[in-house]
Design a protein that fits this description.
With 466 residues, this protein is an alpha+beta fold. Helix content is 42%, strand content 11%. A hairpin with a 2-residue loop joins strand 11 and strand 12.
Length: 466
């Protein structure tokens, strides 16, 4: 075979090119290692890392970061060197064929990257659902469930607006817009559905029990006669016969209540509503007021009330008569005290019991002291002087004897003090002029009309002489 043969020259050229590329690659690797040791061998200090594990539980993003930190801490010395293909060296066609045949990739020529690529921190996605009722506005999940049940029962939004009591006062337009949004808006319908699924079963049962009655349900209830007195057994039988007609939340009691409403408004089959009067003139309120008979509007006589009023009138008249009869019998006159001057006795006053506020005039030979009540009257009411709740109703008696001496007898529970000396219950003591009488904290001065008493003593002496 000749040296100038083209068939022999081609393989030799290929083998020479391969050997040159391998030599260049080995030289490039040696240069890279040399520059790396020169750049990082002396300038970068070694980092100390702890091998202790963290005790607390880690989240997903922390687990990823810690694994990256551990893998980087295991390599001591210079920072990470990323393999980057040189711009001037590209694999030849023969290298591509070897890679394809062997199936293993050849290490490409490397260049030094001083600044490593920063690690992007993964943001943890929140697993909790968004606040569902945030974008629902005035409409609550209970309102949506009420709307859906009512529309399924009546298929009429006007009836829903008139018959359903929502949490807010919605207009007919708002109800229509909400219903169309639940039907055709995927975002609102999804939020509403998720919110309704979170309702408590008891709340759902309470909402379903308020569902409106459909026309078929009212038609079945209207067949029960108005004259009959149906019991719960009748409505239970009606529920068992038509389970597909009535709502699942219907009970015999709820059917009975609705039947009574139908009967009240004359909506049963055997009831008829009186037609309105036909004519050109419609009766207004003023015309109806003129037609009302005033005589019929007068209150009827209440015999029981009249009898009670008559008895109370009799009692009042009887008390007035008793007071009129007691006026001449009063033996003590109560006067207001003005000034500190001595009282002027008249020809009928025997003695006086003088206090700070009032004075009691004694005009008979015997008077009673105490606290007056509604049932029992007394001559000297000590409650006019001050607080007398500790005084007995009949505390004592003051009596004038024939010889002109005054004596006081204690008939109450508490003692009576005469000039500082106690007179116990059941005892008596002589009263002199200017004697101090103290009864349950109330103090009085007993004053005697000496002129009148002297005359009484003289008459008594004449009577004894005869």
């Amino acid at each position: 075979m000749q040296a100038g043969d083209p068939e022999v020259g081609a393989p030799m050229a290929v083998a020479g090119a391969q050997s040159r590329s391998e030599d260049e690659e080995s030289l490039g690797v040696k240069d890279v290692k040399r520059t790396a040791t020169q750049a990082f061998g002396s300038g970068v200090p070694k980092r100390r890392s702890s091998s202790r594990s963290i005790k607390r539980k880690k989240f997903d993003d922390e687990l990823v970061e810690s694994s990256l930190v551990k893998s980087s801490s295991r390599v001591k010395g210079p920072p990470v060197i990323e393999p980057v293909r040189c711009s001037g060296s590209e694999p030849s066609s023969s290298e591509k064929k070897k890679v394809a045949k062997s199936g293993t990739a050849l290490p490409p020529p490397l260049t030094m990257v001083i600044n490593p690529a920063p690690i992007t921190k993964r943001v943890k996605k929140s697993k909790q659902p968004l606040h569902i009722t945030k974008d629902l506005g005035r409409w609550k999940p209970t309102d949506d469930l009420l709307l859906i049940n009512a529309v399924l029962q009546t298929t009429d939004l006007t009836s829903v607006h008139l018959g359903v009591k929502f949490s807010c006062r919605f207009t007919l337009r708002e109800i229509k817009e909400r219903w169309y949004a639940l039907l055709y808006d995927p975002v609102i319908s999804k939020l509403a559905w998720q919110a309704m699924r979170q309702l408590h079963p008891e709340a759902i049962a309470a909402i379903q029990s308020k569902a409106l009655f459909s026309q078929t349900e009212e038609a079945l209830l209207a067949k029960i006669g108005s004259t009959s007195q149906p019991k719960l057994d009748v409505f239970q039988e009606l529920l068992s016969k038509h389970p597909h007609v009535f709502h699942q939340s219907r009970t015999p009691k709820s059917l009975l209540v609705h039947w009574q409403l139908l009967k009240q408004y004359y909506l049963l089959d055997d009831q008829s509503v009186q037609p309105l009067p036909k004519g050109d003139q419609v009766l207004n309120f003023s015309d109806a007021e003129q037609m009302v008979d005033d005589v019929k509007l007068k209150e009827s006589r209440d015999e029981v009330l009249e009898h009670e009023l008559m008895i109370s009138d009799r009692h009042q008249k009887r008390e007035i008569r008793q007071l009129e009869q007691e006026l001449p019998r009063w033996q003590v006159l109560v006067d207001s005290i003005t000034g500190m001057s001595m009282p002027d006795f008249d020809n009928q006053t025997l003695a006086a019991l003088r206090g700070r506020m009032v004075r009691y005039l004694m005009r008979s030979r015997e008077i009673t002291l105490g606290r007056a009540t509604k049932d029992k009257q007394i001559d000297v009411d000590l409650s006019l002087e001050g607080p007398a709740w500790k005084i007995s109703r009949k505390q004592g008696i003051i009596k004038l004897k024939n010889n002109g001496d005054f004596f006081i007898a204690n008939e109450g529970r508490r003692p009576i003090y005469i000039d500082g000396r106690p007179v116990l219950s059941g005892n008596k003591w002589k009263l002199n002029n200017n004697s101090v009488v103290e009864i349950a904290g109330l103090r009085f001065v007993f004053l005697i009309n000496l002129e009148l008493i002297s005359l009484i003593k003289a008459e008594a002496a004449k009577m004894t002489q005869q």
